[in-house]
TrEMBL record:
The lineage of its organism: Eukaryota, Fungi, Dikarya, Basidiomycota, Agaricomycotina. Residues 24-37 have a biased composition (Low complexity). Pfam families: GDE_C, hDGE_amylase, hGDE_central, hGDE_N. PANTHER family: GLYCOGEN DEBRANCHING ENZYME. Residues 791-1032 form the Glycogen debranching enzyme central domain. Residues 88-174 form the Eukaryotic glycogen debranching enzyme N-terminal domain. This is Glycoside hydrolase family 13 protein. Residues 1121-1579 form the Glycogen debranching enzyme C-terminal domain. Residues 1-41 are annotated as: Disordered. Residues 200-634 form the Glycogen debranching enzyme glucanotransferase domain. InterPro entries: 6-hairpin_glycosidase_sf (IPR008928), AGL/Gdb1 (IPR010401), AGL_central (IPR032788), AGL_euk_N (IPR029436), AGL_glucanoTrfase (IPR032792), GDE_C (IPR032790), GH (IPR017853).
Amino acid sequence: MTKARKVKSTLHSVKIPANNITHTSSESPKTPKTPKTPADEGIDFFESAFTQGEEPIRVYELQLDPDGGPNKDRSYMRLPPAYKPYVLRVSIEAGTPAAKNGVFKTNFPLDGGRFSRDHFPERKLPTDFSKPIRVDLPISHAGAFAYWVEYDGDEPGTRVKGREGYFNIDPVLRTRARTPIISDASISSSGGAVLSDNVNLSLDGVSILTIVSKWMGSTDAWRDHLAEASERGYNMLHWTPLQERGESDSPYSIRNQLIYEPSMFTGGKADLGEDGGKAKLEGLLRTAREEYGLLSLTDVVLNHTANDSPWLLDHPEAGYSPANAPHLTPALELDTAIVEFSGSLTSRGLPTTVHSQQDIDTLISEFQEHAKSLNMWQYYVFNVKNERQSVKDAVSANNIIPWTTKDVAQKNVVQLADIIRTSGVINGYRALEKRFGTSVPGPVAAGFVKAAFVDVEDNADALADAWSRVVDVLNVPLYEEWEEDTKVAMEQIKGRLKYIRLEENGPKLGPITKDLPLVELYFTRLRGKAESDPQTYSLANNGWIWKADPLVNFAQPPSKAYLRREVIVWDDCVKLRYGDGPDSNPWLWEYMTKYVTSLAETFDGFRIDNCHSTPLNVGVYMLDAARVVNPNLYVCAELFTGSEEMDTLFVSRLGINSLIREAGNAWDPKEFSRLLYRHGLGKPIGSMDTACVTSKEELPPPTGKGPTRPCIVIPHNGSAPHALFFDLTHDNESYLDKRSAEDALSTGALVTFSHSAIGSVKGFDDMYPKLLNLVAERRQYEVTRLGENSGIARAKRILNSLHTEMALHGFEEGHVHQENDYIVMHRVQPTTQRGYILIAHTAFTKGSKDRGFISPIKLRRTKAKFVYGAHIKFSSYENNKDPNLLRGLPGKLVEMREVVAPQGLDNEGPFAEIIVPEYFPPGSIMLFETQLRGIDPDLDALCSSGADDVFGSLNLVDLNVVLHRAEGEERDLTAGDIGTYIVPGLGNLVYCGLEGWMHPLRHIMRYNDLGHALCAHLREGTWAMDFVAARLFKQSDTFPNLVGPAKWFQERFDRIKKSVPNFLRPKYFAIVISEAYKASRRSVVEQCSDFVSTGHSFTQDLALTAVQMLGLVQSASLDPGKPTPSLAAGLPHFATGWARCWGRDVFISLRGLFLTTGNFLDAKRHILAFASTLKHGLIPNLLDSLRNPRYNSRDSPWWMLQNIQDYVNMAPEGLSILSEPVKRRFPQDDTWVPWDDPRAYAYSSTLAEVIQEILQRHADGIHFREHNAGPNLDMQMKDGGFNIDIQVDWTTGLIFGGNEFNCGTWMDKMGESVKAGTKGKPGTPRDGAPVEITGLLKSTVRWLDQLSEAGEFPFRGVDAKIDGKRRLVTYKEWSNLLQASFEECYYVPLDPAEDPKYNVNPSLINRRGIYKDVFGSGPGREWSDYQFRPNFPIAMTVAPELFEEKHALHALKLADQVLGGPLGMKTLDPADLQYRPYYHNSTDGDDAAIAKGLNYHNGPEWGWPLGYFLRAYLYFDTRVGVGNGDPSQTLHRLFKILLKPRHHIQHDPWAGLPELTNKDGEYCPDSCKTQAWSNSTILDFLQTVHEMNTT
């Protein structure tokens, strides 16, 4: 869109002329009341009382990107006519950059009143970070509108304007109703008759006929033409310009824009009246509309005027001349040379008539010689003599300007010339405005050569000679440019001469004279003026350039199109010069505005002539003015921009309702079928979007006043420009020339089956053999109506009428099939499943009568009845030579006998079969009426009903089965019988439940992608339907609540299988699955907390992962004696068995997945289950259904204690959990016993006692060797790794533990590679006091102190042996000890001068201003204390009081800069020598750093630390950072970080956030695709934000 930016400044400066409306009344004069505008009426509607039974309001939702702009596909929106007001909803995700003090701006009149292009009402965007942001626009009238979002930039005080978007609202077109053309599958003889009542005509029902009034005779005869067009089924006439024509007699060469062509009227000029014939013409158009059902559309010609327009003499500034565009001077000189040369051919002994190529070569050769005498090179180059003299004069007068811009001394003349070219000192460089107009001022040149030629004698002649040498070099490329331009100009003249005087398809003009020169002239010389002042009164003619940039005006510099003769010129039209706006050329703008508004008052629509070369600012201004007087103006145009992107630019800016497309541009049947599919398909048969993607909601009043109304929300995907599909336009060759005459019927028929506006030209139906010359043709149309010599008119009557009827009655779905020379189109009404199918045998080549081949057409479960068939037979292809009448070829429309479509039956069910008859020559067509048989009329309602009742009653574990279940989970619970579904061509779905289906269906439903592999599979059979219900029935013994959903699915799928043909199966499958999914999702959300239920989609997507992870499997449980639901660490790797439920993972995840979502019961179950396993003062990392738990994680108990604290604070009556009895899995002496041993569960503790035991055991020191230590427990670990040692350092309060052979924190990768020598060596031992454990410890003792002080915890502290004595250490004392020691132990000062204050070894410091990852790493690993990792924000979040606030914020900013990744945080500083960001667990090798994935935590980017970073940053930045005065500044920064996670969860098939990624968010194959803690910690952050908003 780079080129589009050129016009933006002019677009917003456009102003609309006021519409002066006069009101008269017989009553006493009163203060005039301003009439309500359509925008006012729309506001009134939404503020008026709601009427019971009122239809739901349509809400079209446009989702903007995070930067506030639409994505490329949605940059242009086409919206339907506002028969009844509706809403355009613009949605932005909460917290995205565009929401930062965001303001939505649009020139749609949101506050009522009239539209103004440069008036932009505003709506301030809500600042709630927890709820979706919406702006609802009440839409009530047609027009073209722009919008954007403006918001705060990253730099203070800056504002960002988001990318602009555009929405165009279709006009309301009202036309006469007509009687049906088909009745009971038969053509009605009275069909298509015009009735007295009106109907709303959608753009897809428009059927246009182009007519040229000069061939219609006078207006007295027009009724016959109107009747003919109406009888042939057209409902709109495209009138080529009806204004007074210029001397060429072309309708597009308008002499007087405000007067209609006098010759149209019987009395000529005498009939025009004071208004120039406007009233008379409006009367005729009223007759056309009311009696014949014909709306009117006319061309608007903005680019040019006739070469004899009288007003040009008074206003030559309206055109381009050398006087106002001096660069045209040499072009005019060359043009004049052509005139003079043409008049001298006889005297030169040259041919005046062209008979051969030799004549052309002779003429061009002589003209080249003539052109040389013009010395045109003088317009390009420096005058060396003058340049020399100017330097000499400057030096002699000591008038020298020193050269200071660049060192030029000792450079050669080529280098010096290059410097001069780019220095900006050359006057007239390449401007071509006058001979020798290129120069450098003498004083400047003198200063330059004096600085350059330091060795040259310092006198005037020497320096002047030096400058001459530089000028000679400067002139070299200028001479080359002149030679190239001359060469191109001569080639263009030669090509044009050949076309207009020799080629068969050209006009073959006669003798060459001065009045009829060699080629068309590029300039109009205004008679009586140009003779004396050619510079002012020689005006450039208009034309077009092949593949030109439509945003570049070829009459303005730097274009040399006129000089190079590149314009294919219309020598009867002067190009108009508008400039940048009305101030540039006031008279022209005012005059043309009167012309345009007058037309808008008279006609229903415009065709913008030559739209692609109409200056965009002119088009915008004029159409805005037109819509003031006719808001429902229909605008179409033909564009030759060369790109769809540029087409959309013009369509969106100008508000073009339809782009003209032409069937004749197809070169074969395949290309034609592509055009039909692209422009005329509508939606494919079986489309799903309406049924599946829309949602019912309650609509708050858009203005804030008025009642809430029911609405249907329809996501908008953006739009392609709407098509006006012509079989043939009035300026293209006939089908006799292009293809074959016979193809007119087949192509014309196929065009009528397009779900778009359609068009034709008078003469196409009549079979005119040749393109008619708008200028030279003088004959009149023959009116044949539907009788003899009417060509294919009788067929077009049926098809045009049917086209309109199908649009009126919603036949919006279609199918296009091409096979060999055949094209089949089927149009269907999706509600009734009634349709029409057209079989057309195209005739792209002449002569053949062969039937060709097409397979029998099988229509499943459908009855097809023949309606009509025909081909056209010609007795001759000779052009009619009637001197007075325009007539078609002598052809006869041969109508076919009925073709029966028999019913058949095969293994897929019944079908109708259409077989093309043996005689069906090219050009033939057949039309059948179709009706789907046996389809249940209540099926749509059934499929979309009852879901809320059935799925709304399920609990979250039931919903886990319905929505999710990975392969391993499903097979675990079904004894291996059921796994994820395999779709041929797509592979395994990731889930067995609805989310598995919804991932492909979201795209299929939104974009109606029926070619998707899943749709193909559904058409082939019903296996997918069987699977959905069967898997629920299979598991109903375990989950009895699933019987209801299983029956719900089965009932609907059984009905579908019974009555729906295979091609509709994808649609109904999608309806059922999507309804079930929406109901299930609602059920989850409704069972969640207010934070989730009122939150935005990102919050709810994350909340769904809590259901994704919480499920029941046989092999993992919270109870060793029976299966119970448990939390999976991640999917798919941690789905079942011992690997499913991990202590650390559960308690990192529990707050977010359970507490923030309101699932307190499952939170409690997990807390109590793990508490029951307490042994050695630890809880297990691997739970293994409590049967074989493993105690090798030092951090797990602290995560549990943090979660108990969170539960107490967040759950209703949360404190009561401390009194809950906990049956203990192991005896008090920590003896290992099997779970079913009598000593297991032999005693109980309260949860408070369990908490105290954890603290006390740590205070005493923990020292044990893991049960069953050795290869049977862990085949990778060295013997020393099984020894667990943990103790408290009572000088600091810190807990230390671990050794070089084990890894007791979450960074727990054990080396496995024998080849690399890393087997049994942890990748990250983190022995010592890891920073997050210290933070969790501080959080716990602070909390317990608070509880104890309040009398809510039965223990005051722990007994500890300190300095050889046992004594009570209160929790307050322990907390204070940690507080006093933390910064000293962990902080690495930014300033080395402060090192003595802290416990640091400067020689080991790699990065300053950070917090150590560990304090007190083991011998030989002291350096690992100083590794910069993302663990310190955990401590900041749970115990922020430990940190000096400014130190903390600096470290967090550093983490953002150094460790931040798209979906998580780098686990190690990239500057660290150990940093290895690519994780491949299965890869072995010699590199010890990465072999067998040892770098698991040494660089790859993990998801879960991100949530803690966000919470920590929010805390400290709002206290001592930019968020201190305005927390929203911090929130916007942090929400920007969440853009990638938000996008990922919305689009990834697993619908969750991954465990980790490789460098910069790159996909890691060995990662879990969705991980509990990755999702959880983001929920934690969002819930924190929600609390901030609510408090």
